[in-house]
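Let's do one together. I've listed all components of the complex below, 581 residues spread over two lines.
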Amino acid sequence: MSQDLYITNSVLIRDSRVWKNEMLIFKNENEVTFSKFLKAIYRHQELKYPKFFKMDGLSKLGYLATEILTNGEIQNKSTALVFANSASSLETDEAYAQTIQDFPSPALFVYTLPNIMLGEISIRHQLKSENIFFVSREFDASLFIDYCRVTFQQKKAENMLCGWVDLHNNDYDVFLWQIARSGGTDFNEEELKKLYLSTHE
Amino acid sequence: MSRNYLLSDSIISPIGFSTKENLAAIIRSESALKLHENSKFFENGFYAGLIEESIIDEKFSRIGEPGYYTKLEKMIILAIQQVLDKQPGLKIENTGLIISTTKGNIDQLGKTRYSPDRVYLWKMAEVIADLFGFKTKPILISNACISGALAIKAANDLISSGRFTNAIVAGGDLVSDFVLSGFQSFQAISPEPCRPFSNDRQGVSLGEAAAAILIGKANSDASEKVAYIDATTANDANHISGPSRTGEGLFQSISRLFRNNNIKPYQIDFLSAHGTATIYNDEMEAIAFNRAGLEQIPVNSFKGYYGHTLGTSALIESILTKHSLLNGQLLNSLNYSASGVSQGLNIIQKNEKRELKLALKTASGFGGCNLAMLLKKESI
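Okay, and this is what the predicted structure of the assembly comes out as:
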C-alpha cells in the first residue's frame, strides 16, 4: 500500500549551532559549556517554561528542538512521537549513579529513562498520542520510515513528530522533523538521510 | 491483511527456566519474591525476585562461554535459544530481532569486567544478535514499563512494513543497585511481597527475568493459536513519574483500541493489568478500567508472582495471557486480600478453567506512557 508522506519541516542542533529548515538560526560565538548553550537557545527563543530548568539535558534538548520546530504550537493533537537515540539516558544514568552511595537522588532517577523526554513533550503540548522510543547505534533512517509509514497506514496518527536526540559526555546530536500527508519534501530514506547530514560539508 | 501470531515462547525467571516451568509454578501459587538481607539500601532487607548467576551459567554453558556475556545477556540469550529450539525450520535471514529493556547492562556501569560500551543498549542488542547470526540489524525499544508489549506491537508493525517476515521479541531487565536505590528513593518499595489492587498494598516489589517470543504467520499444525489483533499507546500528558489521577492515557489507549477494532467491553474475556501495587498506580488503573466499562471483566496482575520486571513485565504478561487463552484458564491474582481501589474490579481470586477467546493486555509506565493490546484465540 503506497501513500504519500512528506517531511514538512526540520531542526538540527549540532556543534553549538541551531538550524531550522536548513537555515542557520542560532550560533554560539564563544566556547561555552553544554548547559550554557542550552540556556542561550532558551533565551534566544524567548521561551517561558520554568519546567525547562528542572529537566535533564536530554529532555531539554528534546523540548527546545520541539519548540523551535513547531513555533511553540502543535495544532494537531493526533501527532505521534517517534524518537530514538544511541546513548539512551546514559548521561543522567551516570549522574544518578554518582549519588547512589550517599543519597540516591529521586530528581535524577526519574530522568534515567529515554522516553521521559516524550513525557515532557507530551505534557508541554498536551499530546495524548502514540509514543515509541528506539535505541540504535547510529541514526537509522529506514527504521523511522518503516515504523512511521505503518502508523499512518493504521490511522493511528494524522501527523508525526520524529526525533533523533542523542546526548553523552556532553556530546549532542539533535534532529527533529514532522511528517504529514501533504507539503514539503518526500519522506523517503534518501531525503531523510540528506536532511540529517545537511550540516556536513 | 493476514494476521501475525504469538508463536513459540520462553520465560526465564526465578520460578522457572521455561514457559512450562513458569506456568506450573503459577498454578502452584509459587512466587519469585523472597527476602534478601544483604543490601545497603534496606536496613531490614527487601523482597525481590532474583536469579543466581551460577544457575544461569550452568544452563548457559551449553550455548556459549558464560564469562563472555553479562548476566542479563545470558538470560536473554537463554530465552531466545529456547524459542529457536522449538522452531528448527526458522529462516534467521528473514527474522528480525527486537529487544525490550529499560536499563540493559546498567549493573556494569563503572565496572571493567566487560568492554565499557556494553552499557549502551544497542551494544547489548548487537552482542545478542551476533551470537545467533541474525542478518537484520537488531532493534531495541526502551520505553519504560510498556517496553515489552510495545516490542510485540513493533514486531507486528515492522512485519507489516515488509522489514522482515517474522521477528523474535526478547526482553530482559535486572534488579540492580541502580534500580533498587532509585525506587527506594521514591519510597515506592513494599516492605513485604507486593499486593496488587489490594487494600493492604504498600508498593512495588522488583523482579528480574527475561523472555522471548516468535511473532509471525501461523507456521504449525496446532488447531488453536493466539493472534495479535492490534495495540495502541497513549501518553497521559500529565506527569513524568506519577500516574494520571483520571487514568486518562490508559483510558485513551483502551478506548481507541476498542473503537479501531469495533470491540465492546463485554467481549473481553480476560484482562491482564499492569498492577504494580503502588497506591497511585493501581487506583489509576481501576479508574481507567471503569471508564472503559471493564469493571466486570476478570482481571489479574502477575506482579505477585514475579515482582515488577520492568522492560520484561509486559512481555512476560503477554506470554502468560497467550497461555491463559490457549489453556482456557484464568490465573489467580496472587497476594490479593480485599479491594483497595475506589472503583469496582473483578479480581481473579483463584485459578479457574473457563473458555476464553479475547484478552486485553495493558501496561503503563514512567514518562506517562500507556499501552493496550488485544490478543485473540483463533481455531484454524
